[in-house]
Write a structure and sequence with these properties.
This protein is α/β, with parallel strands linked by helices. Helix content is 45%, strand content 7%.
Length: 247
């Protein structure tokens, strides 16, 4: 007779958290039996320091960094049960990451615009893969300070090709207002700072630049900017949707 009580009491086998052990348990593509020595070295070094913040991982081109990153992501999910976000610079690289995850049997789901974040991501069962704009935008589904929306907690964020991501992140925090595309807003802002340029004796240069007669850079004096910071935030908050709601 089967003792069902013992079956119920049997504990589930704990999930592997060492990324090399995780790799060994995964199905392998044809011709792949083990990871490269460089991958193993990086994974061992990361695993020993996995509780630290802001760790940089560097591998040579063709060194298999995508697999390394996915194994790290799976390790975090297995150990903490928390979601992991994987960001890549372009949509093409996002597709490559998803293809690699499928190849090795690591569960991953794509970020989809206009849809809620997947339940498997929230539950720490699948890595969520998207571009940098997925996280870094003014209406991020992961929460923006002061927006009133709850912030989504993650156990780790993987930044693929982080060295080329600076421009994407900078764009996400840069509001560009041109006289051609936003004539009234441009004029309003220029008029607010005209007295400051008169005060420093550069009113002529300022006028030539804002009217398009001359091309150059007229930097607003820092003291003038700080003096008007509160009113600028209030004004821009009312017109930002006309410029770029995602900055």
């Amino acid at each position: 007779m089967v003792d069902f009580k013992k079956l119920r009491e049997a504990k589930a086998k704990p999930k592997a958290i060492n990324p090399r052990e995780i790799f060994n348990s995964l199905p392998k593509p044809p011709g792949i039996n083990d990871i490269y020595a460089s991958q193993a070295e990086v994974l061992d070094a990361w695993f020993a320091r996995r509780t630290e913040n802001d760790i940089v991982v560097k591998l040579h081109t063709g060194g298999g960094k995508t697999l390394v990153a996915l194994l790290m992501a799976q390790s975090v999910m297995n150990e903490t049960g928390e979601p992991v976000l994987y960001l890549a610079p372009t949509n093409q690289l996002v597709e490559q990451v998803l293809a690699k995850s499928k190849e090795y049997g690591i569960s991953a789901v794509p970020y989809t615009k206009g849809q809620q974040l997947p339940a498997d991501f929230h539950d720490g069962k699948s890595v969520l893969v998207g571009s940098y704009e997925t996280l870094f935008n003014g209406r991020s589904k992961f929460g923006v300070r002061g927006s009133g929306h709850e912030v989504t907690k993650v156990g780790a964020i993987v930044l693929d090709d982080a060295h080329v991501a600076l421009s994407s992140v900078r764009d996400a925090f840069t509001l560009t207002i041109t006289s051609k595309d936003h004539k009234e807003i441009y004029r309003e802002l220029a008029d607010r700072f005209r007295p400051a340029f008169k005060e420093v004796g550069r009113n002529g240069t300022f006028t030539d630049i804002v009217t398009g007669k001359e091309h150059g850079v007229a930097e607003v004096p820092s003291w003038a900017w700080h003096r008007k910071l509160d009113e600028l935030q209030q004004y821009l908050g009312g017109v930002v949707n006309e410029i770029d709601p995602f900055v």
